[in-house]
Amino acid sequence: MKNKKITIKDVAKQSGVSIATVSQILNGNDQKFSPKTVEKVLAAKAALNYEPDYFARRMVMKKSKTIGVLVPDITNPFFSTLVRGVEGVLYRENFITMLCNADLDTKKETDYLEELSRRGVDGYIIASSAISNQAINETLRKKNLPYIVLDQKKAEGFSDAVLTDDFSGGRLAGEHLSQLGHEKVAVVLPEDATENIKTRLTGFQEIYPKAILVYGELTKDGGRQAAREIIKTDATAVFAINDELAFGLYLGLAAAKKKIPQDYSVIGYDNIDMCEYVTPQLTTIAQPIHELGQTTARLLLERIEQPEKEWEEKTLPVQLIKRFSTAHLK
Ligand code: RIB
């Protein structure tokens, strides 16, 4: 026969107090009870091996200790590193990370937001551009749910924010290619670029106002296909707006028998791990991706703790990492 599940009723019976008292004590509200009562309840819990039901507990505490995290696609190493940063901080604070891939699909993103809200998450981290301001207003702001929108989109109006300096990043990439003597350059980016990527481009265009724009999805395949367009131009250097695009360019340019950096200098953006494992190692603009995740998680937890505190905006710096995919124009 199956063992009977131990309930709060059993703990109350064994310790000789009411169910309400057991519930209060096991949920950490033990200040109003005598040490003897607390001890009796904890002893009964231990003797019976009682595990409080998570959902029942949530009803009492009005907290799920869960944060919903929405990213466009976790297979992109930028987002997996970001989530590791988020998760590390949340784990240390006894929170669970609930991850959703929004796939740049507005409906999927809205569905996730609503479902996460029904499941009672304590806050949201949204690193995805598909979210509409309307969904933010309807699902989050009106219900007073704490959230931070980062990376691809900046929330309109009132919320905390964590950014990286995309404008400086784009300009640093431009300055580097200019110092190497390149005059004709191309930028590979998505046609419907997100706000952060547009800012990156604006920084680059400060140095190269006439940069040739080649469009491709923000993926390795996007870069591979963009290589076919690059070789039709007179560019000698390419700024790939993220590292994944740059890796795709490696393959596409090799297929066209072009060499990096002899025929084309290539600079990426993000500084994901793979940059060091490709040949030639990729010169790139490093975003502090892990730190971005950590900072965002900390800021959100602070907001949950202190809902009335002043809004905060943090901008993290980026830096040029020189490797071997860029070289002087001969
Ligand atoms: O690789 C993903 C890219 O898109 C990153 O540059 C990040 O900033 C995002 O917006």
TrEMBL record:
PANTHER family: HTH-TYPE TRANSCRIPTIONAL REPRESSOR PURR-RELATED, LACI-RELATED TRANSCRIPTIONAL REPRESSOR. Gene3D superfamilies: 3.40.50.2300, lambda repressor-like DNA-binding domains (1.10.260.40). It comes from Candidatus Enterococcus murrayae. Keywords: DNA-binding, Repressor, Transcription, Transcription regulation. NCBIfam families: lactose_RbsR. Pfam families: LacI, Peripla_BP_3. Residues 6-61 form the HTH lacI-type domain. This is Substrate-binding domain-containing protein. InterPro entries: Cro/C1-type_HTH, HTH_LacI, LacI/GalR-like_sensor, Lambda_DNA-bd_dom_sf, Peripla_BP_I. Residues 2-55 form the HTH cro/C1-type domain. Transmembrane segments: none annotated.
